[in-house]
């Protein structure tokens, strides 16, 4: 089974939205993405610091190889703005595969580089990702958003997620309505 394959027969694929191509992550994206994600302000709510191109390449090698747990899929995409033919961010889904008759669950996240913020790119990418996951049969979709990160909360809402009373590591869990 390849890094994008799962026991449920799920496989990562490119996703096309109105303005964007969500392209499965490749190690070769590291250099361009290091520049896209290079603003330290992108880490205000998540902690950490930007990766160097070399460190990001090493990280992408691990991500592309896939999860060491066969019951978990690591799906990562770069967000390409077609009109500019430039990468602008990433979206990801960590999919927990369920047993027979049970539903898969996905934890999603997104980040858009500072120069591309305020243009609806994160909203469009997150909506496209959630819709694609639903088409693959994933019914439980969640995200965790820092309570002070209003832009990310707006992206979660645009993707169809709603805040819940659950808090994990100081972040509010958002999920598709009707989920437990």
Could you explain the architecture of this structure?
This protein is α+β, with helices and mostly antiparallel strands. The chain has a single domain (15-175), classed as Gcn5-related N-acetyltransferase (GNAT) (Aminopeptidase, 3-Layer(aba) Sandwich). It has four helices and eight strands. It has helices spanning 30-36, 53-65, 121-135, 150-158; strands at 15-16, 20-24, 72-81, 86-96, 105-112, 140-145, 162-168, 171-175. An eight-stranded mixed β-sheet has the order 1-2-3-4-5-6-8-7, with helices on both faces. Strand 1 (15-16) and strand 2 form a beta hairpin. The model has no long low-confidence stretch (mean pLDDT 92).
Largest sheet: 8 strands, mixed
**Domains counted in the coordinates: how many?**
1
Tell me the radius of gyration: 16 Å
Catalogue the unreliable spans.
none
Shape: globular
How many individual helices? 4
- Oligomeric status of the shown chains? single chain
Provide the structure class: alpha+beta
Spatial order of the strands forming the largest sheet: 1-2-3-4-5-6-8-7
**CATH third-level topology:** Aminopeptidase
Which percent range describes the beta-strand content? Answer: 25-35%
Counted beta strands: 8
CATH architecture: 3-Layer(aba) Sandwich
CATH superfamily: Gcn5-related N-acetyltransferase (GNAT)
* Rounded average pLDDT: 92
Helix content: 10-25%
Task: State the CATH class.
Answer: Alpha Beta
- H/E series, N to C? EEHHEEEHEHEE
- Spatial separation of the terminal alpha carbons: 31 Å
């Amino acid at each position: 089974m390849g890094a994008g394959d799962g026991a449920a027969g799920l496989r990562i694929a490119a996703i096309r939205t109105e303005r964007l191509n969500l392209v499965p992550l490749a190690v070769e994206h590291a250099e361009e993405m290091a520049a896209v994600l290079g603003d330290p302000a992108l880490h205000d709510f998540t902690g950490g610091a930007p990766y160097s191109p070399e460190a990001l390449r090493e990280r992408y090698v691990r991500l592309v190889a896939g999860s060491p747990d066969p019951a978990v899929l690591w799906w990562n995409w770069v967000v390409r703005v077609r009109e500019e033919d430039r990468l602008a961010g990433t979206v990801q889904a960590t999919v927990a595969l369920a047993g027979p008759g049970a539903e898969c669950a996905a934890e999603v996240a997104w980040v858009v580089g500072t120069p591309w913020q305020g243009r609806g790119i994160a909203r469009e990418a997150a909506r496209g990702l959630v819709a694609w996951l639903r088409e693959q049969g994933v019914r439980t979709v969640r995200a965790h958003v820092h309570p002070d990160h209003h832009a990310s909360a707006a992206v979660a809402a645009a993707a169809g997620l709603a805040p819940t009373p659950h808090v994990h590591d100081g972040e509010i869990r958002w999920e598709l309505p009707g989920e437990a």
